[in-house]
Protein: GNAT family N-acetyltransferase
Organism: Paracoccus methylovorus
Amino acid sequence: MIADPQIARAFETTWPAAEYASVGGLVVGRGRGGGGRVSSARAARPDWSDTDIARAEAVQRGWNEQPMFRVADDDAALAAALVAQGYRHGTPTAILAADCAHLGALPVPPMTAFPIWPPLAMQRDIWRDGSVSAPRQAVMDRVALPKTALLGRITDRAAGAAFVALDGPVAMIHAIEVVPALRRQGVAGWLVRMAAIWAQEQGADRLALAVSRANTAARAAYDRLGFTELGGYGYWSKD
């Protein structure tokens, strides 16, 4: 899914499941309502088997979670095995990264974006009113790495929120939400740049993120900021 091992590790550790179960060549995450990333099974080794798929399904059902697999774009074998068992592909997602130095070269205007931890109630409200529910916010709370929440402001109003955490030289930004009435005014871009500045201060040199391929507007914005694609994945589930 991600050829770069440092980014591959940060992708998992900066947005962790509540617990994990190893099932042969697969690893299964327990999301507790935290979304597909943390509620899916994925290949941990190339020697998985059809029996492992069935065992992963059993683990997920035992957790009262719907069976779901996260499959790298280049993992044709696992995709084919899931198709044979009635799974369908959905939510194609790209993984992007950029240099923190490049992103941080443009200074963030004062009081436009800044880091705060723990998050303020207004940040949690922005997340809740968007797509970052309380169980998704719980993912942030359990991250055991350097982390912070970002608050974006425009016209003296709280306008956006994001979460960033780092594992060694790689930081990942998650949960970028902008108040609907204040979108298309550059808030998300400033949040990303502030994430890079904060990450550099913690010793990281790259910032990564995941974005749905269907979100063409966001993808274009990330391209303009200097992000490049490193890989991709999709979620596989049954009706």
About this structure: The first strand starts at residue 19 and ends at 23.
